[in-house]
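Two quick folds needed for the group meeting slides. Do the first one here.
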Amino acid sequence: MSEQPFDHAPAPSLDDFARLARAAFDALPAPFRAAAGEVVIRVDDFPDEQTLAEFGMEDPFELTGLYSGVDLARREGLGSAPEPSRVFLYRRPILDEWAERGDVGLSDLIAHVLIHEIGHHLGLSDDDIDRIEDAAD
């Protein structure tokens, strides 16, 4: 039996994901990056138990990303939010979706999740984001 090209390739690490997320963010149009402001991008393997409980989820593979913070539409005044705005990207669920789909590159999937969560930071709902994505296709 011959060796396959991915037989000895390690899964992308948290640092690899962080680099891919940074590259995806840097590739966004300047106005979108500016609107995102000081949002912190964090990569974890999985959401924590509290986050899963808040969403009524038992399977940590169900959640690929999360926005945490007060979105721009709900902030009062021009000051900063009481807590830093954060986008979480969850490495293992994203890798799982990427492997199952097989129709999208890993960098593209990371960018998709990142953009979706930044959309929440901007105050957009899932329906708003879906309409924007549908119009772009």
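Then this one, please, same format:
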Amino acid sequence: MGRLIKNSIHRVRIEGYTSEGLGVARIDGMAVFVHAALAGEACEVQILKVLKNCAFAKVLTVEEPSPHRREPDCPWYGRCGGCGLRHMDYEEELRAKRRRVQDALNRLGGLDVEVEEILGAEEPLHYRNKSQYPVSAQGSVGFYRARSHDVVPVERCLIQHPAADDTAGAVRAWMKRWGVCGYDESTGTGLVRHVYVRVNRRGESLCCLLVNGEKLPHEAELVEEVRSAAPATVGVVLGVNKRPGNVILGQSYRTLWGSEVLTDTMCGLTFQLSVPSFYQVNTPQAERLYGKALDFAALTGEETALDLYCGIGTITLCLAGRAKRAIGAEIVPEAIEDARENARRNHVDNAEFFCGDASDVSERLLKEGLRPDVICVDPPRKGLAAGVVDTVAGMQPGRIVYVSCDPATLARDAKRFKVLGYPMARAAAVDLFPGTAHVETVALLLPE
């Protein structure tokens, strides 16, 4: 087998996609991952990088284009790392995402389960209710270039809410007007690190500046600039983040003007959101995600339901509406405070919340004799710790509903559950992130 050489040119047929949405081809038996190529296309490609078991390439010419190829609708596409799939139509994007979940369950999990459907977004543009704009040392406000921390200045983004773009633009103008410097990661100097904006369904927004310090120059002028650009702003908050590295959120917060929280509605419930609160970024699609989870939970009103990694209580309160008792657990103290407040706000009196690591809380509840009828888990991208899998299965629930933001870790955990007597029975995908390679999955695991 010949060795691929950097800069060499080859004609290939694209067979499918990687988990990041790159096209996959083969040259002399080696997998070649091709940027901006679509399944089925015949392309002339140039090799960019050769590794031991794979290579990366770019398209020079598309000799046989896919009918799903489209001209990217964003002028920053290919430079900004936010979206990776704007060269394909939405039909192909959904097909690729469903196939990604299916491949993960089959190949990585060894599971014989069909992904029943993928629920696409009715509105694939301007869907994000939370925006995080990094700021460069030179004062550029935008998004990171792919696989780097170089900030690409972006004035209008197709997946952010216009109010968030307006707010970021106001901060950009304020920095320029008053000579306020951005943060330099390499030296740890400079002030403004990120512009963070939440927007609710009514179009109201909450602005937070994450800064390398305790205060800002010209704070009153910042508030004035933001409120002028985004009149529906409910509050402007300063977040203090003096830690090195790329952590975004602050260690403490101070309200410069207005409210420190934003309220929003989801699934018929009202939620209070502080800056660090976890909340799905696409509200209409989150409702469909949670709706599918409730369908899989099949509650009748007589059950006890346990929700691990509950955040501010979104899923827990949805479960409480259909169960006799709902219990939520979360390691972040502020999130648990928000969850309890959200239960009070929505007059939900059959939900309770515990603060602690999912492993510790589930182990304690097991020792106390709790046997939930339904357990729902919605872990971060890294999935479940092995101890959580063991404890959840040890509680012997009638159903386990797994909400996942990473098909690979879902497949790994599902394989562990199967060994413990809980094979996966059903799975469905939900697209919360149009234009990007991310996809959510809801899976149902039943005892054998």
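Slide caption for protein two: Residues 90-108 form the longest helix (19 residues).
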